[in-house]
Amino acid sequence: MPPKIHLKDVPALIGTEVGVSEWITVDQAMIDKFADATLDHQFIHVDPERAKETPFGTTIAHGFLSLSLLSAMNASGAPQIIEQKMGINYGFEKIRLMSPVKSGSRVRGRFKIDDARFRGGNMLMITYNVTVDIENEPKPALTATWITIVQFDPADRPAL
């Protein structure tokens, strides 16, 4: 369970790792469902027999599937802000797909706050440096600079 923190605590956390998510198993069923949803049925993702002939020796998850798991990783790994009314995915500054996620692998996210700025009366923009680890692999699946927005009641804005 991720820690619960107050809005006023966020600026002091800039530059620190604030959480690590639970492990998520990326199995063939998940990969196949993602292929169906995105209409990307390239054999390296969905054909285990043909994928055996590749340097990976098995099917691999789509890079966008690995990236999309950040939402679940955020929920189980990043701190929960007590005053938050709603969270918004604002986007990414940088994404690097560094290592394929083989079918059956487990992945988890590591969250470091790179920046946090109050915007307007009821928003906090948080920039995370996220690394998605693959269990028992030396290189991560991906790294990303992810920007989120925390919306809160203006009455809860701390005086900084």
Automatic annotation (TrEMBL):
Gene3D superfamilies (UniProt xref): Hotdog Thioesterase (3.10.129.10)
Q: Where are the transmembrane segments?
A: none
Which residue intervals define the domain MaoC-like in the entry? Answer: 12-119
Coiled-coil stretches are none
UniProt superkingdom: Bacteria
Its name, as the record gives it, is Acyl dehydratase
Q: Which Pfam families match?
A: MaoC_dehydratas
Q: Which InterPro entries match?
A: HotDog_dom_sf, MaoC-like_dom, NodN-like
